[in-house]
């Protein structure tokens, strides 16, 4: 399964290879540039989205970032090479950093016990970062920060740069140890064309200084405060604001009430340095980042606590070896393709003769990634920061993209409450729960802004901002009451996507209406790092790769619709240690579908759903040692497998996945539902995948069980089992009415790609399946069951009709058990030779053995050849098993004992109400 999103265009002399980041304003690509001298180089291209070219403000903001970035030249700041245009589209090019952002390094290595599941099967996992390494990371960052603060214009005038988003997400560590500050997209500089009146909130609440949280004008000391928070978290191994929601954090910042900075085992001198950097009163803080740096370095000299940048790079490279290999593989594949297409003359070997600079990733921001809050207690391991959905809604006739971008004014935990740009009192922002609480609690320094258009986009601002006629300066009690009334009037406005920790005051915004016609559309992309809930009173647009990170749970309410974006090949990825709780009902299923309008939807419109777990797989390296699997094409994450047979990736109940399987390259599509290393603690119950370009259900190893699974109109196979899958499935339907040029199969079963007997052996145990297929239009036949490469599946109680072949068994060590089979229609004709001997195995003779329990065209069986309106998969009466056949009760406690019949159905249609048949 491949997952590299390849861009369709070039920009100037830059050949875009694939996307590595994106945001609300811009997209970021890895690119190959060929100079006039024939020198090829990898770099990163960031371009403004074409859809925003008619937005003067967006263009101004992008150019503000470009102008500032082009001026920054320092070893600890990401290098920008060029600012240019291709037609009307502005872009900038940056160095290609081969490494990881600090928040991922800390998640993987931490400062204590390692918990990252990606290291579960590594025999010698890398050690945590030493204290000296952590201090060196901070001092290198401070040196780059001080350089940016001191930047002067060409005439010597100070540019007064403030980054405003100093955080672990914006500090990059390369595999050779370079420490690079990135993402000056929301930085403030004296020459910025775009200005925000009132100092709208920009940045992440977890790293904001009190002055920044209050919306006051900020200087370089706001960045010093954020650096102090980063140091404290790296010393303590936990979040400064762990276990606290946005409301109490904002309130405590405003009140200058910071957590106790004492950390057991940390030298008192370091705690004092942190305390000075994080002083609530700005005049008590270090005046410059350089002062902060010098005090840290003096402590390091006195104690001998230091580390070379090379040692830091080696430790990070060891921890992310698989990710690095994955990135190189993706790049090499693209370069080889370009060479094959005649679009480039450089080979991967030639390119790697240059220093491998790696990726500069713009952090993938979105409605579900503005740094989620740590849901654990204050002693939790260090992790990502606050998370809140962008809630501003579109004004009539005006585009609004709620996915914040590194260079967008919409960045930050609360987003930005910007000035009234249209002159009609319209403001954008986020977090209505916080806004409502601040109003209710009488916080006069932070008040709610209301869109004066009939839709609510609640947000935050500071007293003195120009808020239009809805809110007057002064924040008097009567004004607050008027604001609360306006909030109450708009009961159907957007609510927070995050359910956990939402304050009760959020109820002011109404309970929501799942059947409303004017649901707001919320974009999902990037990384979900904390528990979050998607609600049915809004629609969701799934863009690019949305990843649920380890430790986080994404919950989806019954009746919620998630639409996969075709242009960005939207895909949902649940990483090992994360959980997806999609618990629909028969009357209100959860639907993943295409973003295209009804009538225009087609297989392959979007990616699909990918669950990754820590259950056993059978992949081995050249020495025969167990290794983790990896979803090919994912440049971030994507590994799976371990030793936990009870691994829990969540629950899918009454879920429908439609039109997935985006084609990433010829003959390379995603599956509808991919389950890789998913364990038995996961629940699959009433799940349909329909109208795919590839397989409906793909099992890469693991032990997950499932019931009531439907594959309708697959592009290739219905159920595909590989890499040692050993789960149990019951009540399965494959319904395929489309003849295909390359015959597809209902069940395709393999042990491993090399056909070895690696353990665990692929051994799905399947009960009660109805398989209705279509003949192939080419010589390659369709098969109900194809078993190869040393797999050992077990089949019970099947109904099969419509395929060219019933079963084909290949390869020496392959073994199949089958008991109970009803053959329907032409498939039952012995004269038509529905199956034939292959590789020395006589399938005809094998099926004819009495122990197979084969019956042909039993009375009352469904008609597999009928797929039109009114067709039913339910037989007139349950098709009885042979009296000597094994019953489900004898097969184990998982299987429903009362299902002692052939096929997926007895007398009840369990698909009624939630399954949709046909295209």
Automatic annotation (TrEMBL):
Q: What range(s) does the Protein kinase domain occupy?
A: 14-300
Q: Which Pfam families match?
A: Pkinase (PF00069)
The record, for CDD domains, names: STKc_PknB_like (cd14014)
Chain intervals for the UniProt region annotation (Disordered):
357-380, 401-426, 744-765
Nucleotide-binding keyword on record: yes
User: Can you tell me which residues bind ATP?
Assistant: 47
Q: Does the keyword Cell inner membrane apply?
A: no
| Record InterPro entries | Kinase-like_dom_sf (IPR011009), Prot_kinase_dom (IPR000719), Protein_kinase_ATP_BS (IPR017441), Tyr_kinase_AS (IPR008266)
Q: Which domain of life is it from?
A: Bacteria
Keywords, in A-Z order: ATP-binding, Kinase, Nucleotide-binding, Serine/threonine-protein kinase, Transferase
Which terms does the record give in the GO molecular function aspect? ATP binding; protein serine/threonine kinase activity
Any coiled-coil regions, as ranges: none
* Identification of the protein by name: Serine/threonine protein kinase
What is the species listed in this Swiss-Prot or TrEMBL entry? Plesiocystis pacifica SIR-1
């Amino acid at each position: 399964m491949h997952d590299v999103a390849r861009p369709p265009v070039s920009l100037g002399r830059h050949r875009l290879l694939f996307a590595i980041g994106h945001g609300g304003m811009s997209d970021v690509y890895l690119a190959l540039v060929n100079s006039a001298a024939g020198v090829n180089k990898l770099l990163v291209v960031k371009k403004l989205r074409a859809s925003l070219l008619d937005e003067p403000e967006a263009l101004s903001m992008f150019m503000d970032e470009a102008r500032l970035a082009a001026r920054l030249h320092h070893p600890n700041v990401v290098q920008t090479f060029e600012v240019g245009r291709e037609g009307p589209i502005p872009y900038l090019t940056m160095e290609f950093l081969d490494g990881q952002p600090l928040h991922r390094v800390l998640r993987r290595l931490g400062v204590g016990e390692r918990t990252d599941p990606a290291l579960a099967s590594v025999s010698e996992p890398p050690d945590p970062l030493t204290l000296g390494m952590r201090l060196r990371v901070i001092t290198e960052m401070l040196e780059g920060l001080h350089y940016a603060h001191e930047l002067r214009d060409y005439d010597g005038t100070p540019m007064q740069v403030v980054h405003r988003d100093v955080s672990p997400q914006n500090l990059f560590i390369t595999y050779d140890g370079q420490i690079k500050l990135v993402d000056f997209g929301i930085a403030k500089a004296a020459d910025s064309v775009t200005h925000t009146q009132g100092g709208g909130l920009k940045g992440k609440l977890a790293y904001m200084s009190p002055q920044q949280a209050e919306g006051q004008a900020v200087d370089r000391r706001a960045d010093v405060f954020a650096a102090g928070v980063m140091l404290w978290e790296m010393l303590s191994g936990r979040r400064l604001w762990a276990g606290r929601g946005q409301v109490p954090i904002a309130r405590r910042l405003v009140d200058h009430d910071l957590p106790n900075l004492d950390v057991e085992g940390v030298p008192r001198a370091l705690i004092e340095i942190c305390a000075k950097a994080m002083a609530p009163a700005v005049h008590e803080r270090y005046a410059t980042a350089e002062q902060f740096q010098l005090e840290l370095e003096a402590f390091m000299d006195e104690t001998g606590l230091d580390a070379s940048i090379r040692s830091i790079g080696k430790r990070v490279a060891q921890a992310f070896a698989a990710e690095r290999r994955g990135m190189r593989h993706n790049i090499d594949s693209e370069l080889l393709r370009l060479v094959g297409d005649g679009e480039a003359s450089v080979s991967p070997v030639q390119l790697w003769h240059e220093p491998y600079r790696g990726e500069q990733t713009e952090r993938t921001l979105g409605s579900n990634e503005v740094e989620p809050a740590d849901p654990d207690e204050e002693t939790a391991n260090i992790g990502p920061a606050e998370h809140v959905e962008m809630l501003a809604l579109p004004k009539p006739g005006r585009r609004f993209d709620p996915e914040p971008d590194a260079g967008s004014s919409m960045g930050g935990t609360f987003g930005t409450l910007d000035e009234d740009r249209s002159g009609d009192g319209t403001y954008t922002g986020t977090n209505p729960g916080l806004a409502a609480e601040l109003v209710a609690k009488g916080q006069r320094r932070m008040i709610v802004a209301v869109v004066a258009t009939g839709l609510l986009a609640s947000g935050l601002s500071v007293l003195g901002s120009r808020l239009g006629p809805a809110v007057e300066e002064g924040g008097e009690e009567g004004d607050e009451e008027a604001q609360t009334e306006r909030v109450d009037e708009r009961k159907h406005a957007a609510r927070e996507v995050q359910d956990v920790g939402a304050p009760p005051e959020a109820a002011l915004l109404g309970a929501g209406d799942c059947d409303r016609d004017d649901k707001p559309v919320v974009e999902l992309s990037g990384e979900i790092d904390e528990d979050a809930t998607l609600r049915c009173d809004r629609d969701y647009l799934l863009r690019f790769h949305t990843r649920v990170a380890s430790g986080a749970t994404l919950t989806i309410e019954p009746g919620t619709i998630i639409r996969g974006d075709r242009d960005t090949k939207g895909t949902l990825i649940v990483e090992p240690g994360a959980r997806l709780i999609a618990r629909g009902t028969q009357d209100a299923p959860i639907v993943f579908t295409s973003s295209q309008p009804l009538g225009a939807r087609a297989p392959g419109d979007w990616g699909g759903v990918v669950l990754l777990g820590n259950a056993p797989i059978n992949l081995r390296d050249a020495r025969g040692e167990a290794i983790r699997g990896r979803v090919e094409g994912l440049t971030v994450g994507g590994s799976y497998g371990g030793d936990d047979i009870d691994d829990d990736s969540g629950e899918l109940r009454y879920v429908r996945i439609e039109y997935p399987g985006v084609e990433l390259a010829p003959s390379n599509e995603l599956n509808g539902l991919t389950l890789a290393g998913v364990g038995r603690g996961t629940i699959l119950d009433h799940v349909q995948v329909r109208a795919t370009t590839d397989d409906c259900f793909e099992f890469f190893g693991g032990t997950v069980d499932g019931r009531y699974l439907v594959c309708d109109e697959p592009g290739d196979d219905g159920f595909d089992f590989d890499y040692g899958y050993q789960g149990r499935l019951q009540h399965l339907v494959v319904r395929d009415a489309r003849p295909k040029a390359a015959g597809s199969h209902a069940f395709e079963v393999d042990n491993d790609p090399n056909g070895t007997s690696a353990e665990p052996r692929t051994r799905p145990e399947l009960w009660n399946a109805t398989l209705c297929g279509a003949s192939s239009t080419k010589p390659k036949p369709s098969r109900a069951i194809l078993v190869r490469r040393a797999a050992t599946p077990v089949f019970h109680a099947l109904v099969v009709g419509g395929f060219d072949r019933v079963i084909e068994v290949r390869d020496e060590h392959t073994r199949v058990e089958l008991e109970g089979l009803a053959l329907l229609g032409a498939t039952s004709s012995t004269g038509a030779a529905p199956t034939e001997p292959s590789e020395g195995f006589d399938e005809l003779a094998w099926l004819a053995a009495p122990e197979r329990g084969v019956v042909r065209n039993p009375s009352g069986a469904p008609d597999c050849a009928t797929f039109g309106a009114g067709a039913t998969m339910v037989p007139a009466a349950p098709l009885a098993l042979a009296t000597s056949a094994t019953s489900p009760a004898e097969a184990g406690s998982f299987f429903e004992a009362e299902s002692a019949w052939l096929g997926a159905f007895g007398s009840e249609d369990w698909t009624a109400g939630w399954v949709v048949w046909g295209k």
